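for the writeup, i need someone to sanity check this before i put it in the appendix. the sequnce is what the collaborator sent (i think, or maybe the updated version? ugh). structure was predicted straight from it, no edits. if anything looks off just tell me and ill rerun, i have time this weekend
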Amino acid sequence: MPGKRARRHFSHLSESERGLIIGMKTAGWSTRRVAGQVDRSECAVRNCWEQWTREGTLARKTGSGATRKTKREEDRLIVRQALVDPTVTNSTIRADVGVAIVPQTISRHLAEANLKSKRHF
């Protein structure tokens, strides 16, 4: 759409943005005007205002993602095993860690440590 600014979709409102939204809405600004001023969607502004009126707080709610299966020590053990022996397999790492985890978890921990699998041709 020409003339429209690209909104920052799928990013969380910062504390300062939440404070601005609450201040502008308290001052009587419309949702559309506030959304244009803070460069956010009207839905984000509306949700922030509803949370403020319902709960009286600006705090973000914690995520509802799955609980962690491994502790920090186990995460370090996964990375250490891959560093010590680059030919180690996911199943060997899983057996050594002693926690029921899927291979994707191991791959994710290795990727976070900037370790990538190497295939020989």
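Helices lie at 15-26, 31-38, 42-55, 72-84, 90-97, 103-112. The chain has a mean pLDDT of 83.
thx in advance!!
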